[in-house]
Amino acid sequence: MRARVFWAELKRVSGVSIGACIVALSLNYFIVPNQITDGGVTGVAILLHYLLGMPTGALVLGLNIPVFLLGFRYMGGRFLILSMCGVLAVSAVLQFSAGALPVTHDLLLASIFGGLLSGVGMGIIFRAQGSLGGTDILALILKSRFSFSVGQILLIMDAVIFLIAGVIFKPESAMYAVIYVFFATKVVDFVLEGLNHSKAVFIISNKPEVVASDIIKILQRGVTYLYGSGAYSGENKKVIYCVVSRPELARIKEIVKEKDPAAFMAVSEAPEVFGEGFSPVRVR
């Protein structure tokens, strides 16, 4: 049992370290040489690098130290340790690859491909349940004190950094930074969730047994009945619930239209589904 836990933790540390190295290479080969900034503490480090001439790697490490000291009061030890591994790895690779010649001087290409590469690295880090510290930790701390979500706090911090970048460099730098972050975010979602999003379907029908029977027979998907009551009519209803793949959704619509055109149907995203008929349950 201990050996299994050890290898699981080693896998997470390795994932965070590899992801951090990819992010660092993206920064030094695409972002930093082209005066495009990043969000969070890394973005602040890039700005200070150009203002003070100090190494980006050393700045990333130095700026994260007080954040981690604060974090020990509010965050779990495991998350902080994994985040510290990420910060150490990204700082080291930034330091060793400093001065690298950029792959391209085209700012748009640098923003896009830098974002793609950083997104892959960040996705690997998040899959390993780590982070690169910085504003992620600050946002979680501030969330407990103010009535903002983590996403809102991160958005405000990044907006401030991009505005400063636009003043220090030029407005176009801030615009390219937004493109970089946009592509990085999209790739992170892809790495974490993949392309095959499933759909969760809720169907309220006057013929629930008929509709459910066809779904089971034709699609060979499991169906669950949820029991609800109409707030206006007061009638008790069977609500059909099932999870299907994207291609199967069109077939479900056909079944519902054929069996009960007056049925109510709601569809929502189910980015990750584990269990019989889908991916096996896995712990990252």
What does this entry look like structurally?
The chain has ten helices and four strands; from the N terminus they run ααααααααβαββαβ. It has 284 residues and is an alpha+beta fold. It folds into two domains: 2-193, no CATH class; 198-270, Alpha-Beta Plaits. Helix 1 (2-31) runs parallel beside helix 4 (77-96), helix 2 (40-52) packs antiparallel against helix 3 and helix 2 runs parallel beside helix 7 (150-168). The longest helix is centred in the first third of the chain and has 30 residues, at 2-31. It starts with a helix and ends in a 14-residue tail after the last strand. 35% of the residues are buried.
Question: What is this entry, summarized?
Answer:
The protein is an alpha+beta fold and 284 residues long.
Radius of gyration, in Å, reads 24 Å
- Multimeric status of the protein: single chain
Gross geometry: elongated
Helical stretch count? 10
Q: Label the structural class.
A: alpha+beta
Strand order of the largest sheet: 2-3-1-4
Number of strands: 4
Taking pLDDT < 50 over at least 5 consecutive residues as the criterion, the unreliable ranges are: none
Helix content: 55-70%
Question: How far apart lie the N and C ends?
Answer: 17 Å
What can be said about the biggest beta sheet?
4 strands, antiparallel
Number of domains: 2
Strand content: 5-15%
Rounded average pLDDT: 82
N-to-C order of helices and strands: HHHHHHHHEHEEHE
